[in-house]
UniProtKB/TrEMBL annotation:
A Pfam entry, by short name: DUF2961
Species lineage: Bacteria, Bacillati, Actinomycetota, Actinomycetes, Micrococcales
Region Disordered, residue ranges: 341-371
Database matches in InterPro entries: DUF2961 (IPR021345)
Protein name: DUF2961 domain-containing protein
Length: 371
């Protein structure tokens, strides 16, 4: 993955953008809609005045966010919907006409908000801004075409606002395909590490980890090591970390004396989310953490047999305590091919987050405003 040597360098590429105001990104194709989710609001103004700012994805259906023909590279994705939908929507990306997705991740987890509760993220690759404005800057090149979809696994229709910006006209032959995979252990099996990635074949580089970590017991939970089994590794990994908080760039339990767990967000690593018990239904602590290997990608020549992380706390006598936590991870990597081995698509029950009781709706509430 490379970035321009200089922002002022002239490039022989063209920028295009797909949104509900220009579904195919065509030249001069924006702001032409005569019907859409904003048509009633613009009834006094007519075409050109925010007629189609969003789409409604019906329950159980999949909507194509973008279909792009030819070679290009997605450079930015902005998207938003209400918090109730962040684990019920599945984001997918297909490259070069492949039938299997290279990206298959719950919407919120892809944007470092896996718990359905907003956390601001200020990183180079993912920015999550108030209140649920999600941005991705992962470069996503393709040679013959790209397709981005969003599936609504819930029982209610969902309104989604989005914009996909991409470039065409460049040479992308030497670039890897972007992949993202989601794994969840809920709860983690006894004395078994959580699998982040496994069975990946080909040349590439691992570039990112996001974990939504739910703690199911008292005490410290982040003593476990992350391990990267690369190329011909079998019993022992080439890369072995020293602890969970170390891998995500923190230290000493993320504990600032007098403040306890302290959220932080930096360009390449962070723990932007700390969800504390509320004394009622939210009984356990939950965390969101990311680590982007942008300045330090993990290169492999023939594959990544396995990436995993332990869940360890402490018991009496300064002994490690294996934990059985709720761990949901998203792994990002570039590969020399558009498809890779991936876990089975999660069911709605496997996606579900239990954060507390469902609030009683306010019948007289004001309808939500557009973003």
């Amino acid at each position: 993955m490379t970035f321009p040597a200089s922002l002022s360098s002239l490039c022989a590429v063209q920028t295009r953008s797909i949104s509900p105001e220009n579904f195919d990104g065509s030249v001069g194709g924006g702001a032409r809609a005569t019907d859409g989710t904003g048509a009633s609001c613009a009834r006094d103004l007519g075409p050109g005045w925010k007629i189609s700012p969003s789409v409604d994805v019906k329950a159980g259906e999949t909507f194509d966010l973008a279909n792009i023909d030819g070679a290009g590279k997605i450079t930015h994705i902005w998207i938003t919907t209400h918090t109730d939908n962040w684990r019920t929507l599945i984001l997918r990306a297909y490259w070069d006409g492949a039938s299997d997705p290279a990206v298959e991740v719950p919407y919120g987890d892809f944007f470092c908000n896996g718990w359905g509760v907003f956390a601001q993220v200020n990183s180079q690759m993912i920015a999550a801004n108030p209140h649920g404005g999600f941005n991705s800057y992962w470069p996503m090149p393709f040679r013959t075409g790209a397709r981005l979809t969003i599936e609504n696994t819930s029982t209610v229709d969902v309104r989604v606002y989005y914009q996909v910006t991409y470039e065409t006209g460049g040479d992308y032959a030497g670039e890897g395909y972007f992949h993202a995979q989601w794994h969840r252990s809920n709860p983690l099996d006894e004395l078994v590490p959580h699998t982040i990635l496994e069975g990946i074949e080909g040349q590439g580089h691992y570039v990112g980890t996001y974990i939504a970590w739910g703690v199911n017991s008292n005490g410290w939970w982040g003593e476990g090591e992350i391990k990267f089994y690369m190329d011909d590794d079998t019993d022992h990994p080439t890369i072995c970390g020293t602890g969970t908080e170390d891998y995500f760039g923190g230290a000493w339990n993320f504990d600032v004396p007098g403040q306890g767990y302290t959220a932080f967000s930096t360009p390449y690593l962070g723990m932007p989310q700390v969800i504390r018990p509320d004394g009622l239904y939210v009984s356990q602590q939950r965390f969101g953490m990311y680590r982007w290997h942008v300045a330090d990608p993990i290169h492999f020549a023939t594959g990544l047999p396995r990436v995993d992380i332990q869940a360890l706390g402490w018991r009496s006598g300064w002994r490690y305590l294996p934990l059985r936590d709720d761990i949901a991870s998203t792994a990002m990597f570039y590969l020399d091919r558009p498809t890779a081995r991936r876990p089975k698509t999660p069911s709605a029950d496997e996606l579900e987050v239990h954060l507390g009781a469902t609030p009683v709706p306010d019948i007289g509430a004001t309808p939500p405003r557009e973003p």
